[in-house]
Structure formats: C-alpha cells, structure tokens
Amino acid sequence: RSKAIEVKPEDISVTYKDVGGADEAIAELQEIIQFLKAPEQFAQLGGHIPKGVLLVGPPGTGKTLLAKATAGEAKVAFFETSGSEFVEMFVGVGAARVRDLFEQARRAAPAIVFIDEIDAIGQSRGGVMRLGSNDEREQTLNQLLAEIDGFKTDASAPVIIMAATNRPEVLDPALLRAGRFDRQIAIGNPDLIGRVEILRIHSKRVKLAADFDIERAARMTAGFSGADLANAMNEAALLAARHKAVAVTLNDFEVAIERVVAGSEKKSRVMN
Ligand code: ATP
C-alpha cells in the first residue's frame, strides 16, 4: 500500500488566506482550481486540461502548504506523500506504491496528489551513486509516468498531481515533457511585503503587544523563509510565556530571530 496521507475535503483546514507572499503562484493555480471545481465545464470550454504542476523552490517556502491550500480552495481530497517513500530496496515495491496511490486518488476524485521531494523518484536516469537499485528506481519512475499519462482528460474523476523539488535540474527530462508537469511555478523566499503577510498570518495565534510593529519585524528578517518566520513567531511566543508576559514584544521577536538563525546554522553544519 502507498504510505500517502489522505485528507478528506471537509478536513482540510487551510486555504489561500493561510499562505502569505505567494500571490503570483496563487494566480497561476487558479486554472487548476477552476478545473477541479467544474471539470466538465472546463473541458467543454476547450480549456487545456492541466495534469501536473511542479513547485520549485528552496525548503520552507510553503510548497506543501500551497498544495494543500489549493485542495482547500477547490474543496477536493488531498493526498500527501514524499518521493523518498517510493525508494525501496526491492524491485517493484516503489512502482506498486505509485499504482496504489493513484488508484486511491481516482477513487476519491476530484483530488490533488502531492509528492514532496519528487527528485527522490524522478532523478535523471544514468547517473551513479544513488539510493535504491537502478532497476527499482527506473520501474518506479516509469510507473509514475504511466500514471500521469493514463489519467488523461477524465473529467469525471479529475486528479491533479502537484510535486515539489528544490533541485529541478536533476529531474529526468521525461517528467518535464509536455502533458506531464506542464506547469512549473517558482517559489522563493518572501520579499518584505510577503514577510509582513506571513508574520500577520502566524501572529493570529499569539497575542502581540499593542506596539508590536509587524513591518519592523519583517525588516529584521530579510532572507527568512516562510517556515523560518513561523518558527520565529512561535519562538517569540514561547519566550514571552517563559517570562510570564501577557503579550509578545518586538524584543522577544528579536531574541527569537537569533535562535532561528542559530538553529538553521547548526542544521546546515550537520548536513555539510
Ligand atoms: P520543504 O520543501 O522543506 O518540504 P515547503 O516549501 O513544503 O518545505 P512547508 O512545509 O509548506 O514548506 O512550510 C512549513 C511551514 O512554514 C508551513 O506549514 C507554514 O506554517 C510555514 N510557511 C511556509 N511558507 C509559508 C507562507 N508562504 N505563508 C504562511 N506560512 C508559511
């Protein structure tokens, strides 16, 4: 069986109002939502039926969040999985999981299937030194391609596949060929306005001091990803709670920023 997590439409708690600084990506995804909401009408109007969307960007920029929020907007089922879950030792296991995933999705259609780190399956063939045997990897990738090609223009059971990667250059060109991941959406770290939006979203859950200046907080966090901003806001709330304050101040946030920066430096040291 596939290890994908299925979330039913009524259980998806996020929509685009939970995603900050991603207006362009959201605009590009409107077509997908129109298709999922009214596939027959979309087909009748002669719209090019979308199949796959590849979200490209560094870690923590909200790719998973954006995919889930797209399902939330369209009110369709969401299947979440990661490419690494298909990388197996034994030939055929990964391919069977892919088949199973799409079977599940078709049964639950309309649906979005999200595959994080698709490069774990979709790496260009012919390289050396990879995890899993080459035969296994090849079969898994072939099965994925077959599934994408298979669910053509089926307006009665629409399934859209969204995938994410931060290494688009290693993907097998077959995945990017027309009719597969025919749309690529780049997502980068947020600019100042984006950071203001993201901080606003994540400050809803905390009590900010009356004089907490969100724009100043955004200016202090140039280069932060959405995930970094969420962490900083969370850390600031923990600090405030620790000194038994009634609200989070900009000073708490400044200390929190340092912790988030220190934390990610530690992480990258471990990885290097
Ligand atoms: P990875 O590539 O590491 O899986 P990702 O790009 O999928 O990362 P998410 O897992 O979606 O990033 O982001 C982690 C968390 O950071 C989100 O659940 C959310 O709380 C916060 N976050 C990230 N980006 C945004 C954003 N644009 N707006 C609001 N919150 C965000």
Automatic annotation (TrEMBL):
Predominant location: membrane
Domain AAA+ ATPase: 49-191
Transmembrane recorded as keyword: yes
Gene Ontology CC terms, in alphabetical order: plasma membrane
Any one biological process term the GO annotation gives: proteolysis
Single GO molecular function: ATP hydrolysis activity
Record function comment: Acts as a processive, ATP-dependent zinc metallopeptidase for both cytoplasmic and membrane proteins. Plays a role in the quality control of integral membrane proteins.
Subunit structure and binding partners: Homohexamer.
The protein, known as: ATP-dependent zinc metalloprotease FtsH
Source taxonomy: Bacteria, Pseudomonadati, Acidobacteriota, Terriglobia, Terriglobales
